[in-house]
Amino acid sequence: MNQEKIGRICEIQKNTFFIRYECEELKAKLKGSYGNKDNAIWPVVGDYVHFIYNPIGDSMISSVCERKNVLRRPDQSGHAIGYVKTMLEQVMVANFDYVFIVTSLNGNFNHNRIARYVGHTLETGAIPVVVLTKSDLCNDVDSYVEEIKKLSDKVRVHAISALYNIGLQELKQYFKEGKTIVLLGSSGVGKSTLVNAVAGKEIMKTSGIRETDSKGRHTTTHRQLIELPGGVTVIDTPGMREIGMQNVEKGIDDTFSDIKELETQCRFHDCRHVTEPGCAIKAALESGQLAKDRYELYCSLQKENAHNARLKKR
Questions:
Q1: What SS3 class is residue 71?
Q2: pLDDT at residue 277 above 80?
Q3: What is the crossing angle of helices 292-313 and 280-287, to 10°?
Q4: Does the first or last residue of the chain, that is N or C, have fewer Cβ atoms within 10 Å of its Cβ?
Q5: For position 93, which CATH number holds?
Q6: Calpha distance 208→160 (Å, rounded)
Q7: Residue 242 lies inside a defined structural domain of this protein
Q8: Cα-based angle 168, 11, 1 (whole degrees, multiple of 5)
Q9: What's the rounded Cα separation, in Å, for the pair 152 and 252?
Q10: pLDDT tens, position by position, 182-237
Q11: Could you tell me if 170 and 192 lie in one domain?
Q12: Which pairing describes strands 98-104 and 16-21: parallel, antiparallel, or unpaired?
């Protein structure tokens, strides 16, 4: 009887899974009885799995090991947002230490989108690292860096230019043996170029960004796990222009910890921050301590998160 081994899911193509095991990449299927198990966890890229090794054919996955964390996003199952009746949830990747939120310093930069990625990352317990690429094309890099620093005191931010080797040395603190980094961001922002520059050789295929609209061409079409020299693992994801909020209340609170702290100072514990006396939020807005657009973004993300959570329960 074949003894079960443990490997890591590095790629999924339809019903075929690819497992990284020692120095091999093995094709595998789910064991026939897998779907009949109660609460069976479907493997995703980054998962460690128990499998039965088959040297002459497809290996068989029997179970998913306990996860350190997962990155999720709402799944509308193909419906337009106005017609969604039940909000599902998609697990994207599993078991990681850092999430690189990659955005280029051109028309791709979007404060709202970055805040969403940060909230999702903090919900997982991983560390969000905002990487601002193509800094050589920007005349006001410092203002963008400061803007991200103000977003959350839990975010790390680095401005880089892979073309001119600017800022890359700062990123090497994350590329350590045994660590896993997830790459998030729109297409064409330089995720693959970033990894190739840090690795010192071409590990991932690259493609340019259209100068006419600052939108990228898709390079990564599916999630894939790549082992770099030195024992660090990178999980690349297809470009996403937006990510919805669902079941990330803690992540939002951690992102806007200053606002949560102010709320504890309100005279009434159920303060709605509208007309109640002794409201710390209103006082902070009036004094300029709290920026109006920051508070509005916080309220918007909380509202969206609560709405999608209600849809999921239906």
A1: strand
A2: yes
A3: 140
A4: N
A5: 3.40.50.300
A6: 17
A7: no
A8: 130
A9: 10
A10: 999 888 888 888 888 887 778 777 655 444 444 444 455 578 999 998 899 999 98
A11: yes
A12: unpaired
Residue 287 is encoded by which pair of tokens?
A: 């004094």
Query: Are the C-beta atoms of residues 232 and 177 closer than 8 Å to each other?
Result: yes
CA angle 264, 270, 272 (to 5 degrees): 95
Domain holding 14, by residue range, is 4-64
Amino acid identity, position 56: I
- What is the C-alpha separation between 99 and 223, in angstroms, rounded? 14
Summarize the chain as % helix, strand, coil (round to 5).
30, 25, 45
Residues 126, 172, single domain; the answer is yes
Amino acid present at 219: T
**What are the C-alpha distances in Å from 205 to residues 89, 165, 191?**
30, 19, 10
Other C-beta atoms closer than 10 Å to the C-beta of 213 total: 9
- Dihedral over Cα of 291, 154, 133, 102: its sign: negative
**Residues for the chain: how many in total?**
314
Q: Any idea what the Cα angle at residue 79 is, between residues 301 and 115, rounded to 5°?
A: 20
Tokens 């005191």 map to which residue? Answer: 153
DSSP letter for 167, please.
S
Alpha carbon separation from 116 to 24, 123, 124, 178 (Å, rounded): 36, 11, 13, 27
Q: How far apart are CA 82 and CA 119, in angstroms?
A: 24
Amino acid of residue 44: V
Q: Predicted confidence band at 309 (pLDDT cuts at 50, 70, 90)?
A: confident
Distance of alpha carbon 151 from alpha carbon 160, whole angstroms: 19
H-assigned helices in 104-163: 111-124, 141-151
CA distances from 245 to 140, 226, 250 (A): 30, 28, 11
- Residue 158 β-bridge partners: 131
